[in-house]
Structure formats: C-alpha cells, structure tokens
Amino acid sequence: MKGLDRLKLREELIKVYSAYVKDPTDPEMKKAARRLHQDYGNVGHLVDRNMMIAVSLLANIGWEVITPKPAREAAEELVFNLATRKA
C-alpha cells in the first residue's frame, strides 16, 4: 500500500456495512469485507477509532468465525459514525 486514502476507505466501509444491514448473508458483501480486511487490517494506528473498529469487525462479517457478527443496530451505528465524523 503506497498511501492511505482515508476518504476512500471510509466510503468502502460505509458501502460494506450498509449492505450488511440490508442482507448479512450477501456473498458479494462478504467478499468485499474480506478484501477490505486484507487490504486495511493493519491500519488501526493510522485511522480514527470508528474506522479502526469498522476495519477490525470486517473479519467477523467476511469469514465464518467463532466470534459473533455485529448486530444490525451496531452496524447501523458504525455507518452513522463513519458518515458523520471526519477523520
């Protein structure tokens, strides 16, 4: 990764979490979540708290893991926080 485009990452996270709220089983959304987690899973120290939480929860959404997936309300709150708070 050459440089971190926070705006692009924020937009991609909003897309994935909005799709998750609509249909948590959507295979395209899960694929996008896996791709984002692989690309940005190590940027926690470079982004704000909301983006850090959103990136780390992508693993729970994109893969079948033991840890629980975020509740619909939590995903909606993440979308709101990402959309309304500036990096």
Short description:
The protein is built from four helices and no strands. With about 90 residues, the chain is mainly α. The chain is globular and about 30 Å long.
Q: Any idea what the radius of gyration is?
A: 12 Å
Order of helices and strands: HHHH
Structural class: mainly alpha
Kindly state the mean pLDDT as a whole number?
86
CA distance, first residue to last residue: 19 Å
Number of strands: 0
The total of helices stands at 4
How many domains is the backbone divided into?
1
User: What percent strand?
Assistant: under 5%
Shape: globular
The percent range for helix content is 55-70%
Structure description:
- The chain is globular, with a radius of gyration of 12 Å.
- With 87 residues, it is mainly alpha-helical.
- The model has no long low-confidence stretch (mean pLDDT 86).
- Helix 1 (6-22) crosses helix 3.
- It has one domain (6-84).
- The two termini are 19 Å apart.
- The chain is built from four helices and no strands.
- The chain has helices at 6-22, 27-40, 49-62, 72-84.
What structural keywords apply?
single chain, 67% helix, 87 residues, mainly alpha
Protein topology:
Blueprint: H1 6-22, H2 27-40, H3 49-62, H4 72-84
